[in-house]
Amino acid sequence: xxxxxxxxxxxxxxxxxxxSIGAAAALVPMIAQMEPDAxxxxxxxxxxxxxxxLKPGQQVVVRWRSRPVFIINRPPQALKELQDPGLxxxxxxxxxxxxxxxxxxxxxxxxxxxxxxxxxGICTHLGCIPLFYPQPSAQVPTANWEGGYFCPCxxxxxxLAGRVxxxxxxxxxxxxxxxxLINNTIRIGENPPEAANWDFESIKxx
Length: 206
Description:
single chain; Rieske Iron-sulfur Protein; 12% helix; disordered N terminus
């Protein structure tokens, strides 16, 4: 991806990487801050990210329609944990029954490709931005949680598919925006052809 394309396509990148599969992870501070093209933002047009640059366990945050969108490369161990019955039993909406995602993301991983999670990073309680903790962290004052997303404002927590835990203030899963995969490129703001008419405004809550 060229420098000009990078500046046009995303606001900033914040990464968190697993030390090894299933091992503890360390958060890496924001490493860049770039404005998308003003005309693109004004039009609410699609933005793109080259997913081939994302290593297992890493996350980037791109801006679409002035909203942060989390993109995470989930390694095999993380995908296995998302299907664990013990985890599923503690989630409020594990089967994505509420319309918080397009039809092509209504599955256990809430995405087109299980490896690549794409979700709007806005807590469904009061609109704060959850923090990324891909593994349990002593810095987070919460118990019975394997890691994922934690909202520091009021303690809501989500797994790495953006599914909200039961018993927290947030009532719904994190929204999934319209997006499609074109080879290694994630295009946010555009549906795949088979669901071209899905409208993000049908999301229940953001």
